[in-house]
Amino acid sequence: MPSSTKRILAKYTPQYIEKEVLIEGFVQARRDHGKLVFIDLRDHSGLVQVVFNPQVSEKAYEIASELRPEFAVSIIGKVNKRPERLINPKLESGTVELEALELEILSKAETLPFDMGGEVLSLELPTLLDFRALTLRHGSVKPIFIVQASILEGFRNICQKLDCVEIVVPTIAASATEGGAEVFKVNYYDHKAFMTQSPQLYKQMLVPVLERVFTIAHAYRAEPSVTTRHLSETTQMDCEFGFVNFENLLDLLEISAVEMLKHVEKNCKALLKEFKMEPIAFGKIPRLTLREAQEIIFKEYKRDNRSEKDLTPQDEVDLSKWALKKHNSDFVTVTHFPTSKRAFYTMPDPKNPEYSLSYDLLFKGVEILSGSQRINDHDKLVSAIKERGMNPADYKMFLMAFKYGMPPEGGFSFGLERITMKLLGLNNIREASLFPRDMERVDERFSRSEEKEKVFQKKKD
Ligand code: AMO
To answer: Is the Cβ atom of 413 under 6 angstroms away from ligand 1?
Structure first.
């Protein structure tokens, strides 16, 4: 191939009618019509049809007979207008086809383990994940991560508008960041260390430094069960603000959620349509205390969970239905969870310390965010650590920040994969993670003895 020719993308081919162009990409499908060979060529912009005609180039036609799905190729060809009846309205390049003059195979591919050519990939989830390096290429899977990139961009944009500085924090820590048993221990040069359950402690330590911070961080949770909403490694989008009160925090979290998702709706219109999702309902977000939420569940859905310490997954689904019906909102904010159920750094409500100045944001039936006003008094924080049976010595660095002046502060954390899942109507959070980690897999599925398999199946949702 002449290296001087500039590559153009499939979707721009209609701008080059009657011109010679170079395109590069993968063979999506090949159709052999005897005298002619057709391929759909896929690059990161989309598809374009290429025709190999021996009358035009004997050599290219001959090489084309070798082509199979997922071969990477480089083609020089002439862009021809398609006759009216052959226009494909589903393709951006559907008004043209490329008549191949030269063809070079850049990389061959083995025979695929299943058909990747159709519009949908009808595979069971384990197979979809077992062949992740391949299935991610499919036209029904790849867009999930384009939308996910837009969520991240929307989050960054709103954080910058809110004057937050982006920080990068460690994922190896001296203590369990959230407490509890769901923590992976690391053998760190024969010292005790943990994978961070969240960026929590680090973002708080940065408040006296930068006042407003945000981070996109990996969080590791040794989840003891398998559900459709939990991963063992997840991506959290966190904010932390100094000099704020509880009301400010509720406003900030709601603005962040709305702005972030409006950004996605604006920038991924066509992709969201492909997932057949209704536009997001952005009515005024209702705010309920946990107890008020449980009253609604009792009255409207006849389940009496009024003394429970948290919402059940079904409560989250029903509350979201209620918020949509009554407030035209796909979001609902729930506040004041019992202090004993929240992490040690959560501020108890001074009016009733049994409950805390905490909140969750539900979106389309699932909690996508959690956070709180924090305890910013050093001694109270030490007491809260002790009350939970933990050792303040394990939090030495964290506590140092509080010893030397910490303003009233608070923040929140969004779960990236949960938002992606709900936004696109996916059934399982694993579909919203490029390489999901859970009890049964790190890249590859673990093999288990029959006995272990039985125990494992019991832990499934
Ligand atoms: P929390 O533990 O509620 O709070 O996590 C915040 C958000 O992260 C997502 N999330 C998960 N997603 C998938 N799999 C998991 N195992 C998982 N765990 C959490 C959820 C959840 O709402 N430090 C606090 C936040 C704060 O107070 O600022 C925290 O981590 O969407």
So the answer is: yes
Q: Are strands 366-373 and 358-363 parallel, antiparallel or unpaired?
A: antiparallel
For residue 460, pLDDT over 80 is answered with no
Which tokens go with 179?
Answer: 């407490």
The amino acid sitting at 286 is P
**Nearest residue (CA) to ligand 1, atom 15:** 230
What predicted TM-score, i.e. pTM, was given to this entire model?
0.95
pLDDT digits over 128-148, tens only?
999 999 999 999 999 999 999
**194-238 per-position pLDDT tens digit:** 999 999 999 999 999 999 999 999 999 998 888 999 999 999 999
Q: Is the distance from CB of 127 to CB of 46 less than 8 angstroms?
A: no
| Residues with catalytic roles | 221, 223, 229-230, 367, 370, 418
Residue nearest to atom 13 of ligand 1 (CA): 230
Burial 312-339 (b: 16+ CB within 10 A, else e): eeebbbbbbebbbeeeebbbbbbbbbbb
Rounded distance from Cα 236 to ligand 1 centre (Å): 7
Domains of the chain: 10-107 (2.40.50.140), 135-460 (3.30.930.10)
**Ligand 1 and 346: CB distance under 6 A:** no
Count of Cβ atoms closer than 10 Å to residue 242 Cβ:
20
